[in-house]
């Protein structure tokens, strides 16, 4: 299901602690799978790659209108 908000479509980002990288994907843009060492690099890469993927997939989306949704998962152990 394509997630579109008033601020554009959703890009999901998560931190992969094991690999030490940020990961970004989007249900709205097939083929979007980006890894970056920093948050800033991730945002820059998304901005560089989106226009091409949107064109290649012939999507009716504005490559400048997206929201990045970050998730963080924490594992706690009982004391």
What keyword list fits this structure?
single chain, 79 residues, alpha+beta, TTHA1013/TTHA0281-like, five-stranded mixed β-sheet, 1 helix, elongated
Helix-and-strand structural type: alpha+beta
CATH architectural group: 2-Layer Sandwich
Please tally the β strands and state the result: 5
CATH class wording? Alpha Beta
Q: In percent, how much strand structure appears in the residues?
A: 25-35%
Q: How would a textbook summarize the main sheet?
A: 5 strands, mixed
Description:
There is one protein chain. With 79 residues, the chain is an alpha+beta fold. Helices cover 23% and strands 33% of the residues. The protein has one domain (4-69): TTHA1013/TTHA0281-like (2-Layer Sandwich). Strands 1, 2, 3, 4 and 5 form a five-stranded mixed sheet that branches. The longest helix has 18 residues, at 39-56. The mean pLDDT is 84.
Q: What's the layout of helices and strands?
A:
Elements: E1 4-5, E2 8-16, E3 21-25, E4 33-36, H1 39-56, E5 66-71
Parallel strand pairs: 2-5
Antiparallel strand pairs: 1-2, 2-3, 3-4
Question: What's this entry about, in short?
Answer:
The protein is α+β, with helices and mostly antiparallel strands. 23% of the residues lie in helices and 33% in strands.
């Amino acid at each position: 299901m394509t997630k579109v908000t008033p601020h554009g479509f959703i890009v999901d980002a998560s931190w992969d602690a094991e690999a030490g990288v940020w990961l970004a994907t989007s249900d709205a843009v097939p083929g979007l799978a980006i890894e970056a060492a920093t948050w800033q690099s991730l945002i820059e890469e998304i901005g560089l790659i989106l226009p091409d993927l949107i064109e290649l997939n012939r999507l009716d989306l504005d490559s400048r209108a997206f929201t990045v949704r970050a998730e963080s998962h924490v594992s706690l152990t009982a004391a």
